[in-house]
Amino acid sequence: MNQFFSFDRFSLLVSKHWADNKKRYLLSVLAFAGLLITWFAFTTLVDEGDTLSADLQLSTYFFSLFIAGTLYASQYYSELGSKPKGSNFLLVPASTFEKFLCSLLYTVVLFFIVFTAVFYVIDFLMVAITNSLYGNGVTHKKETVVNVFDTAFLSFNSNYSLNFLLFYFSIQAIFLFGSVLFRKYNYIKTIIAGFVAWFILFGLTYFLYHQVYLKGEFVDDVVELPNWFALLICIALYVIAPLFWIVTYFRLKAKQL
To answer: Pairing with 218, which of 53, 142, 152, 251 sits 20 to 30 Å away (CA)?
Structure first.
């Protein structure tokens, strides 16, 4: 049998993970749905003039996605922080690649699908309710369910755009790496490490400021960054997630050894 990857062995690992965590996952889905209903109901009651606007739906989706996605990723390998649980995890008869692939399946693929599905179910329900309550008035307009994939782009300059979803997957990959790197307080330590890295990046950006400033053009009192700078950021968004997935795999492999 292939020691690197076996589909039968991987399927058993995926089934085992679900069997061990299904109660926690189902309760988490119900808790998220309840919080979402509570939030939408609260905003509807507080501001009847702008009930469930597109901006509110978008901000709720992305804010919840970033918080829930990074928190889940940072806790996936939490078993490694405990010697008994860590030993059980390492003794599971599956290769390091299969265990890593299982983590990507649950934290990246399945989490995103389930999260988006739950959001849309609740969003559709709450939009229908608020439209029935307020949408027929003179001062209230009927709201529609927003398409987060059409409006997931944030303009960076006149030539390039940043995709919120790419940014999310990059940040989530960092937190998944943090769950393997740190034994305890993974989420907090990853945030602290992220701030340190941000300050270092800020320092490097400061040294590049003059070059960016000289090549930039003022448009309505705003400095428009040169194309190479925007292109560099766009490339980084595509590279960061795969890079940290690879680093996570090798860190997990080192623990296996």
So the answer is: 152
User: Does residue 1 sit within a domain?
Assistant: no
**Six-digit token string for 67:** 């918080």
Cα separation of 233 and 240, whole Å?
Answer: 10
77 with 252: CB under 8 angstroms?
yes
Count of the separate structural domains present in the chain:
1
Cα distance between residue 44 and residue 52, in whole Å: 7
pLDDT digits (tens, 9 = 90+) for 191-233: 888 878 777 766 666 566 555 555 545 444 455 555 666 667 7
pTM of the shown model: 0.83
Residue 163 belongs to what H/E stretch? strand 161-163
Give me 42's structure tokens.
């609260």
Residue 53 sits in which domain range? 7-256
Q: Which two tokens stand for residue 207?
A: 């040294």
Q: Quick check: is 57 in a domain?
A: yes
**Spatial separation of the C-alpha atoms in residues 121 and 99, rounded to whole Å:** 31
